[in-house]
Amino acid sequence: MKRCLLGLVCLFVSIYSFGQTLESDRLALVAFYQATGGNNWYDNTGWVVPGSPGDNPCGWYGVTCEGGRVTKLIIEENDIVAPIPAVVGSLSALKHLDLSGAGGEFSYFYGDLPVELGNLTNLEYLDLSGNQLTGVNVSVINNLTNLKHLSLSPYMNWPALPSLANLVNLEYLRLAVEDAAMQGEGSVGAIPAYIGNFTKLKTLIMRHGGVTGTIPSTLGGLTDLEILDLSENKLTGAIPASFNNLTKLTKLDLSHNDLNGPVPNILGIPVAADVRINNNAFTFSGMETNISRLDSYGNQKKFKLTAIIPLRTANNLRTARALGGTLVADFAGGTAANNTYKWYKSGVLVATTVGIQYFNTPDGIYRAEVTNSLVPGLTMVSEDLVLIGMPVTLISFDGRSENNQNKLIWKTSAEINNNGFEIERSADARTFEKIGFVDGSGDTKEDQFYHFTDLNPFATSYYRLKQLDHDGQFEYSKVIMVKSDAVILKVYPNPAQDYLTISGISQKQPFSVVDGNGRVVIEGQVTDKQQINIRKLGAGRYVVRVGEESSRLLINR
């Protein structure tokens, strides 16, 4: 009886071992090849499909073996357009799996992740970037607790990032979308708090991943970090003070977000590190003391220019037009003594003050430009401020796109001698034209509601109201922007070589091509479906900007 039981055990072990042999790996590779159209791969060197039992797959293109098992599979950028086959989960000895796509039109995996991927518990390296994978089944990656390297590209309609809290051995984590063809509408949501437990991380890249919310201070506890890239997201709030603990950084990129507040003390970051905080909503506050650590900090959002205005009553509204007030530029930040303030009225420089952030002036349309002697690479520019005793109190002015039309709505709380409103439209927020007129209510103290419909809007339209009195005087409202819900900007081909074409433009608009260093290398005016010569540009990644829209471009030669 004992011998019989022993024989059954030996038979079970023999069957199990057979199921975990190089032959089973070969069969899984053959199935993977057939499911992904391997005959069309640009490189399938050595692959023998369907082959014969006993064929050795070690040495096939992208296949590496150790100890009689397949431990590495690299099939990236290989002319594949297919879902990831579930059979990949049968390669149970894999330590390294690279299925990264070209990020282009003709080479990518798409669809849902196979749940079988969670069987690869020996994986230490997983790269699925540059593909068109949905967020479905991403949670199976949480089973891969031996991972040291993980790279993913969020695609269309990604849900918030599922928990990956078990991946405490990660040294490299990348959730990023690099190429225009891959940029989706989804978002990985806020930066998960559990990433603060990934104490072995040396690289954290969440670039262009639709990241929202604030930066958790726990990231400052990842003291082994060498690269931290959170650029081109929707992050708000301040830079955590804990970032001063990141003493091993070689790169910190927080650019192209909506971060604000004073820059905290980051002098603990090495001087040699590349630190970028440009294209946010920072001011000079904190930059003065940290300038030795900042490599790129320009192009901050406009600051709010405020005013102290004398008391005006209904009886002296007309006289008040000449009274003006005091402009205040304290929201530019920094130490006033280090600042130079230039004051513009209707676009014309009217005064320059050094160390004085106040300016007494008559009524008009003003802006301020502020420079700082300790922060030479940044000019803070204010929003326009209308300093005037207006005969009409405009409470709100809004617009929305609906059924290929733009609907404008505005409200007033009091009107004196109001003849009406001219509606003006612009494609670039600089040159406006009249497109309609709505009668005013004359004299009234009651709330009034107005509306106007633009039947033929641009892809992106800018509007302002020109309020007209019966005596011919007029005032302008603020400018609002409305994007069409029907027009989609397209840049093609992508990748490009000698020419590119831009479509989705309703009329001639300014455009520019910006290289990876933020330099404008081509600019001008473009019409719909116009070809643009790019032969002089080198191979690489660029950004094409048309009005307020932008799209990434890859030049490949």
TrEMBL record:
Residues 491-551 form the Secretion system C-terminal sorting domain. It comes from the Bacteria. The keyword Nucleus does not apply. Residues 23-65 form the Leucine-rich repeat-containing N-terminal plant-type domain. InterPro entries: Ig-like_fold, Leu-rich_rpt, Leu-rich_rpt_typical-subtyp, LRR_dom_sf, LRR_N_plant-typ, LRRC69/RLP, Secre_tail. Keywords: Leucine-rich repeat, Repeat, Signal. Residues 1-19 form the signal peptide. The keyword Transmembrane does not apply. This is Leucine-rich repeat protein. NCBIfam families: Por_Secre_tail (TIGR04183). It comes from Dyadobacter fermentans. Pfam families: LRR_1 (PF00560), LRR_8 (PF13855), LRRNT_2 (PF08263), Por_Secre_tail (PF18962).
